[in-house]
Amino acid sequence: xxxxxxxxxxxxxxxxxxxxxxxxxxxxxxxxxxxxxxxxxxxxxxxxxxxxxxxxxxxxxxxxxxxxxxxxxxxxxxxxxxxxxxxxxxxxxxxxxxxxxxxxxxxxxxxxxxxxxxxxxxxxxxxxxxxxxxxxxxxxxxxxxxxxxxxxxxxxxxxxxxxxxxxxxxxxxxxxxxxxxxxxxxxxxxxxxx
Length: 194
Fold this sequence. Notes:
The protein is built from 8 helices and 6 strands; from the N terminus they run ααβαβαβαβαβαβα. The chain has 194 residues and is of the alpha/beta class. A 6-stranded mixed β-sheet has the order 1-6-5-4-2-3, sandwiched between helices.
């Protein structure tokens, strides 16, 4: 990893990321070998600081799918022991007209309204989350990184128009590995912070 990070540091070129933002972007590039993420990752003001504070308080982390959960479980276990919940595992059956992941996210929002949400696969889950945000449902952070062609960009636009603290990947790119990389970078930043 150290050698890979050194390669990224040499090849990334000029950027305007803060050190913490760069730590997140660098880990995404490391997970994907795709420097295009340098131009796709967006941070809302205070998103990283708020996420670090929430992680230190052992705020639950809700993922859309099991793949994201498995991608962060080792780092969580080495740091703050935050509970990690996969939304799809909370829904054995989808509600009428909804996907299982969307159904699971709605259940999780009821039980964990202030959790960190990491969406790396299901745009329907991200759209459902954006529609549910209210004074009583304010996630500590939403990572919006679903991947694909259908409703992906629309879900990210919906997230961008909310006031939720967020780290978002623009366009069609994203995925479970990207969402997990963002969470893992935040966990490492939180662990290293005095």
